[in-house]
């Protein structure tokens, strides 16, 4: 039986459509780099070189030991558990390969319990630089006396109902509090000014040929970040109201070139701002930080941290060191002293900073995440670029 030509064409079109549909269904949802939004272009796609300003390169004056006279008072710093040894070794190998084998800055490891001999032996084996191991004093780690344990448990239950991760894990709250306001008070850091925070399992992808600590010092920078994100508003409902109370008591701490508009933006994610009671929730992702501890040691930050600590939100909510550090920097520091290290290729699961540079290997240029597509909206860099710039 002959089939009319139009009917054959229709059948063919239907078959093709069917194959197209199946292909769409089964191709993996590729986490290709996506643009930041309408009219925005991810600057990581643009060719990236070294930052402007005075740079100091490797030389024999950075040799390990006393011969390394060019090193300034700075250290690589990690709070880590003995059980995270493998992840720590991997992160160390990445950072040694891309940067520290040229500069040999010491590593300083902190733990709430003593480090095992295995931890010490294996970490020292992956670097020529000196490794130092310290236990955190009890009074810096313990839950403070004014925290009520029943109230903590009750609050943790409510936070967990709202899907706040790690809400009932006391040590997570202790870690966030220590990273917020106590690490730089450890006696082992008394003579240190700068640190580069490193977590187990993070990755570094790009060769960096200048001394980043000298970059901070010589170019008058206080804080360097790579990734800038939204936070879960459920974990910090009272952080901003407490901050406003503090500001009302201390208007003198507000810097005239602050980044208040980055902190209070409500255009991009109005719901976040609403749930966090006026805070955009934008923050520098603090698992990576290169910073000058003089800022944390200033009177403004000390007063702010004590105010927050007394308010109890490190335990009754789940205030992280990332929003706490970020709010303080954006309010009390000149925003031009906060630097985006766009040239440092970095990953902490599930987010990346991956610049367009021949010095980078192992990450996809401009890729922000390799996780689910919904994670793209966690990117708060566009607001930083909009309100402060690319510096
Ligand atoms: N010594 C010690 N280190 C801790 C403790 N809790 C967390 N840390 C360290 O603190 C840093 C942050 O902890 P993470 O568990 O990675 O927290 P996170 O990055 O918010 O969570 P993930 O997304 O799961 O990585 C890591 O370097 C951990 O090794 C603790 O109780 N003791
Ligand atoms: Mg982590």
From TrEMBL:
GO terms for cellular component: Golgi apparatus; membrane. The keyword NAD does not apply. This is Glycosyltransferase family 15 protein. GO terms for molecular function: alpha-1,2-mannosyltransferase activity. Keywords: Glycosyltransferase, Membrane, Transferase, Transmembrane, Transmembrane helix. Belongs to the glycosyltransferase 15 family. Pfam families: Glyco_transf_15. The chain crosses the membrane at residues 7-26. One of its GO terms (biological process) is protein N-linked glycosylation. The keyword Glycoprotein does not apply.
């Amino acid at each position: 039986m002959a089939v009319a030509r139009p009917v054959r064409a229709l059948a063919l079109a239907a078959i093709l459509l069917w194959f197209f549909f199946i292909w769409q269904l089964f191709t993996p949802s590729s986490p290709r780099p996506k643009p930041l939004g309408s009219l925005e272009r991810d600057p990581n796609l643009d060719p990236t070189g070294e930052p402007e300003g005075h740079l100091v390169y490797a030389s024999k004056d950075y040799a390990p030991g006393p011969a390394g006279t060019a090193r300034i008072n700075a250290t690589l710093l990690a709070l880590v558990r003995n059980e995270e040894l493998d992840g720590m070794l991997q992160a160390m190998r990445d950072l040694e390969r891309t940067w520290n084998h040229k500069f040999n800055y010491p590593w300083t490891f902190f733990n709430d319990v003593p480090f095992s001999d295995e931890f010490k032996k294996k970490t020292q084996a992956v670097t020529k630089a000196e490794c130092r191991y310290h236990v955190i004093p009890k009074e810096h780690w313990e839950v403070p006396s004014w925290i009520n344990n029943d109230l903590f448990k009750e609050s943790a239950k409510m936070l967990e109902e709202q899907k706040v991760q790690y809400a009932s894990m006391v040590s997570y709250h202790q870690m966030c509090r220590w990273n917020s306001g106590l690490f730089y008070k450890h006696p082992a850091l008394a003579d240190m000014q700068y640190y580069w925070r490193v977590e187990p399992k993070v990755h570094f992808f790009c060769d960096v040929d200048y001394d980043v600590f000298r970059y901070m010092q010589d170019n008058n920078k206080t804080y360097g970040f790579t990734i800038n994100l939204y936070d879960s508003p459920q974990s910090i409902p009272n952080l901003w109201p407490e901050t406003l109370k503090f500001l009302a008591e201390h208007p003198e701490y507000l810097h005239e070139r602050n980044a208040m508009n980055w902190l209070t933006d409500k255009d991009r994610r109005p719901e976040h701002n609403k749930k966090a009671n006026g805070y955009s929730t934008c923050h520098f992702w603090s698992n990576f930080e290169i910073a000058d501890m003089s800022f944390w040691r200033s009177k403004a930050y000390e007063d702010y941290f004590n105010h927050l600590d007394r308010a109890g939100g490190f335990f009754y909510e789940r205030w992280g060191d990332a929003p706490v550090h970020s709010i303080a920097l954006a309010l009390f520091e000149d925003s031009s002293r906060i630097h985006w290290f766009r040239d440092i290729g970095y990953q902490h699961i599930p987010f990346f900073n991956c610049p367009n540079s021949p010095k980078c290997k192992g990450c996809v240029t401009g890729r922000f995440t390799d996780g689910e597509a919904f994670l793209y909206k966690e990117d708060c860099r566009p607001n930083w670029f909009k309100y402060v710039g690319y510096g």
